[in-house]
Amino acid sequence: MLELFLCSLLTIFPDYLFRRYRQGRRIGKEITLFSVWFELRWGIVSCVMLTVALITVIFYYHPSTSSVTSYFRTVPIMSETNGRVAEIFVRSSDRNISERVERGAPIFRLDSSQQEAAAESARRRIAETDAAMTVAQSDVVAAEGQVEQARSALKQAVDELETKEELNRRGADIVARREIERLQNVVNGRKAAVDAATASKQAVEAKLSTLLPAQKASAEAALAQAQVELNKTVIRAGVSGRVEQFALQVGDIVNPFARPAGVLIPEGSGRRGLVAGFGQIEAQVMRIGMVAEVTCISKPWTIIPMVVTGVQDYIAAGQFRGGEQLIDAQSTVRPGTILTILEPLYEGGLEGVTPGSSCIANAYTSNHEILASKDVGFFRRFVLHAVDAVGIVHAMLLRIQALLLPIKVLVFSGH
To answer: Using the 8-state DSSP alphabet, how is residue 19 labeled?
Structure first.
């Protein structure tokens, strides 16, 4: 309507002035409801053509959209394992289901009797291994004594054998041949006893230096694993933020796949920028650095200056996931939009805008850099000036929308 009114001032109104003061035709006399088309046909046709051209230029070079939302990220509060709630650290009641938490703060705890039993069992195995290492040290000492005892017995047998052999060399009838063979067998047995005692000592030392430390390391690893499982029973906040819709009660069953305990909204989420979806026809116009303006339902009668900081190179409507069926182009019912990131031009621009609020946005094309060049011809310079100038019409429309938005929501929507 605003475009039509502005164009009528340049077409229909001058045509009427010409008819009135040059041809003497008056409204209600020569210009009536039945003859207005014939009398003002040039002005009406020019007004329609100019209005269509103006609307096309405005909405193409200065796009507008009502698909603007301050999206915010949510983190589901869930445990890594199934369990029954044993303790809740944040407030939880029917009247207060929201609370701010710091990063790392506990939110609730699951029943940990099984994990505590596993940790205690691992501690007992560590203590048992330490006791076994103490016993093994005593066994090493005992094995050393057995080795010394076997060596002494061997030395005694060797000395006796050498004495008998020496006597046998001096006189063949002094010592019987059978006695020397018996002593030789005793020496061989004592040597085997020394070897056995030495092997027993080495086995005890290997057990003390290798086997028992490995068993203790395994027990310590089991304790660490049990401690990790025990720590999983305490669910903590991964980021600082607010716990919302948290109505968990002691005794509830929490399932990480089917039943989260609540929602954690990170601090500052949804307050840094807006996400807008512009029509696909504006794909060649949307550029990073464009100035924009928005008005939001949660902050009425306010125009917030923004700047385009990101333009997504892909349209979400064209995405697909590989499967067993071919993609049919007719399955895309709604055309997608150009996803654009808008951030406040000034610090604190989104203060008062509730995250998740719906907004209306205008983006404005600026040809200032092109116009500053000396290589631009007169006709192109005139067109670019006109394109930049008509942006004020869209700015006026946005302000009218901001003015009428509360009335539209509160009165005409039935709220």
So the answer is: I
Query: 340 and 295 in one domain?
Result: yes
Domain count, the chain: 4
Gap between the Cα atoms of 1 and 17, Å rounded:
22
DSSP-derived 3-state class of residue 80 = coil
Mean pLDDT for the stretch of residues 7-26:
77
Distances (CA, A) of 205 to 127, 135, 386: 20, 12, 96
23 and 100 inside one domain: no
**Rounded CA gap, 319 and 309, in Å?**
23
Collapsing DSSP to helix, strand or coil, 231 comes out as: helix
Q: 179 is in which domain, residue-wise?
A: 114-226
| Count of Cβ atoms closer than 10 Å to residue 134 Cβ | 12
d(CA 33, CA 51): 22
Q: What is the pTM of this model?
A: 0.68
Same domain assignment for residues 202 and 145: yes
Give CA–CA dist 101/235, Å, rounded: 12
CA-closest candidate to residue 405, choices 256, 289, 298: 298
Asked if residue 158 and residue 179 are part of one domain, the reply reads: yes
Check if the beta carbon of residue 279 is closer than 8 Å to that of residue 271. no
127 vs 54, 133, 224, 290, 353, CA distance in Å? 87, 10, 15, 70, 61
281 with 390, same domain: the answer is: yes
Given a cut of 60, whether residue 377 has pLDDT beyond it is yes
Pair 303, 382 in one domain:
yes
| Cα dist from 208 to 98, 132, 133, 197, 219, whole Å | 57, 9, 6, 16, 16
Pick from 40-44, 298-302, 384-388: least confident: 40-44
CA dihedral of residues 250, 251, 255, 258 (deg, nearest 10)? -90
The CATH number covering residue 107 comes to: 2.40.50.100
Residue 276 pLDDT grade (very low, low, confident, very high; cuts 50, 70, 90): very high
Residue 279 shares a structural domain with residue 394: yes
Q: Which amino acid is at 299?
A: K
Take residue 311 and report the two structure tokens written for it: 């333009």
- DSSP run (H or E) holding 3: helix 2-10
* CATH number where 400 lies: 2.40.30.170
Cα–Cα distance list, 49 to 3, 43, 235, 403 (Å): 11, 10, 66, 29
